[in-house]
Amino acid sequence: MTDAAILTEKLTKHYGSLQAVHALDLHVPAGSVFGFLGPNRAGKTTTIRLLLKLVRPTAGRAWVLGQDVARGSARFLAQVGALVEAPAFYPYLSGRDNLRVFAHTGGYPDQKRIGEVLEIVGLADRQRDRVRTYSLGMKQRLAVAATLLNRPQLLFLDEPTNGLDPAGQAEIREIVRALGQAGHTIFISSHLLHEIEQICDHVAIIDRGQLLRQGTVAEILGEQSALRIEADPIDHAAALVTHLTHITPERTADRQLLIRVPRERAPEIVQALSAASVRVYQVVVERESLEQVFLRLTRAEALTRDEARTRDEVKKT
Length: 317
Ligand SMILES: Nc1ncnc2c1ncn2[C@@H]1O[C@H](COP(=O)(O)OP(=O)(O)O)[C@@H](O)[C@H]1O
Ligand SMILES: [Mg+2]
Prior knowledge:
Blueprint: E1 4-15, E2 18-24, E3 27-29, E4 33-37, H1 44-51, E5 59-64, E6 67-68, E7 80-83, H2 95-106, H3 111-120, H4 136-147, E8 154-158, H5 166-181, E9 185-190, H6 193-199, E10 202-207, E11 210-216, H7 217-222, E12 226-232, H8 234-245, E13 250-253, E14 256-259, H9 266-275, E15 279-286, H10 290-316
Parallel strand pairs: 4-9, 4-10, 7-8, 8-9
Antiparallel strand pairs: 1-2, 1-3, 1-5, 5-6, 10-11, 12-14, 12-15, 13-14
């Protein structure tokens, strides 16, 4: 457990009959930038609230920074930063003075830290200006700065780019990337796939409260790689590939096959084709984007659900 910043075991939160979070097993490695990806109402915010001890689980357990969330005094919260809801700033105070208020109420008297966090989020040159004059993106960066005041080991960011324009989103991504490189563990939720793909090294995909996949971004993308092979004669090639891999390739174009196997199998397939005197013109490794994986998984999940419902209805009749 020492290498896990967050660990959950069948973590569950039901609201009446609604399974907001159901039997979630998460493993967030220390030092990772962990993307928590899911469509609206998937259960992302509820999970984060469970991990911050803001709501009580219906069942299951969670450990944050090695401490059991349900037990004891939640000491781990002192080493955690969180941006779950937009914090309220005083519009007539400067960015710097707002952070002083936060530092004071949070019990972090270190004034030097205020300058540091303003630097990290790129607001040092606007720190004396009233928050009233800030753009939405600047307010959000100030909110991130506030979460950093206590030098957290672990940072929760719940959809931090929501509502921002593309430039504002890119600024937040840059900050997250820099914080990750500085060694913070970051748990960031999003429904934006490209965002997670760009800044995270690990990802969990959830939908309707349930975990669909979890792993490194490379693993999740790699598991769905495919080989596109251009060869002649193509029928012979298709037969050989089917025999070798037990997977029927798709015919995508004249003289082209698409085979859903990991790239590691490319040499053996090419060798077998050559040995059978099939001429291989081109081999391309194709990877699904995280977006395609996500859509495929959530669609598959919806299909399974529909099937189950149909079965239930058949049973009832
Ligand atoms: N306090 C609550 N009472 C009842 N239902 C809730 C409550 N909080 C969240 N939910 C429901 O739980 C589901 C998951 O919500 P949430 O965790 O906010 O999803 P996300 O953050 O992924 O959009 C939604 O259907 C939401 O309506
Ligand atoms: Mg949410």
